[in-house]
Every structure is written in C-alpha cells, then in structure tokens.
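Our platform keeps sequence and structure together, in a single record for each protein. Such a record has a labelled line for the sequence and another for the backbone structure tokens. Nothing more is needed to write down the fold, since each code stands for a local backbone conformation. For reference, a complete record is included directly beneath this paragraph:
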Amino acid sequence: MSSQHRRIDTAGFVIALLLLALAGLVGWDMTKLQLLSPYDVGPKAMPVIVAIGLALLAVGNGIGALRGDLPERESLDWKPIILIVGGLAVLITLIAIGGGFMIGTAILFATTSAAFGRRAFVTDLLLGIVIALVVYLLFAKLLTLSLPAGPLEHLL
C-alpha cells in the first residue's frame, strides 16, 4: 500500500483562519456589551453560541484543509454575487437617503431572485413590495418597532 500525499488546501486554510478571526471578533465584541439580566442566561448568550459555532467551523475547516479533504470547488460565477451585493447596496443607500425600507427591500428581493435564476424581475419586484409591506406592518404596527420610513411607509 502506498500512502497518497495530499496537498494542503490553501484557500480552505485561509477560510478557516478567517472563521477563527470572526469567532474571536464576535467573542471580543460580546465582552463589550453592557447588558444586565436578572437571569443567568441573558442577551450575551447568543453571541457566545455564535462564536463557539464559528470556532468549531474554523477547526473543522482547518483540519479538512490540512488533510486536503475539502471538496473541489466549482468555478465562480460573479453575476449572482454582483446582483445580490448590488441589491444590498441599493437597500442600504435607499435607507440612508430616506427612500425607506419597503422600496429597498423589494429591490433586494427582486435582485436576489434574479441571482438565483428567476427571470420575472417586475413580478419579483411586486412580490418584494408585498413581502416588505407585511414585514413593515408586523414590525411598525404590531410590534411598534420603527423601521426606516420612506414615501411608501408615509402612505400607511
């Protein structure tokens, strides 16, 4: 039996290091929270769980990368990434300039649908408006939480 020498997956190892750094950042940020809870488990519990999960993912990914056991990656298609990031940028920009939550969310929904291969942009935009309206009404009217208001939100 000959032992097969596998190469270290450099990209996988870099991802493991980034996951570990993100786990450290979440853990460090959690220590800055000034929240008091009358119970033993408070709002700080979730960041701890997230940090532990990220650290476990980092360790698993690092071991897989060192062994060369990670699956081969497919070639990267930039179009879906650009569509989703572009939709998110539009949402952030609209919220920042007073365009509101609903219009930005509808655009993000439509661009994300297009990124996943759907070709009905206008229909998805209308669906996004309906979904954003439901979310806005749930948050603003039922839970009395404020979401960024724009022209559509002022009509309600």
Remarks:
- The two ends are 73 Å apart (CA to CA).
- The chain has a mean pLDDT of 86.
- The longest helix spans residues 45-67.
- Residues 11 and 74 are 13 Å apart (CA to CA).
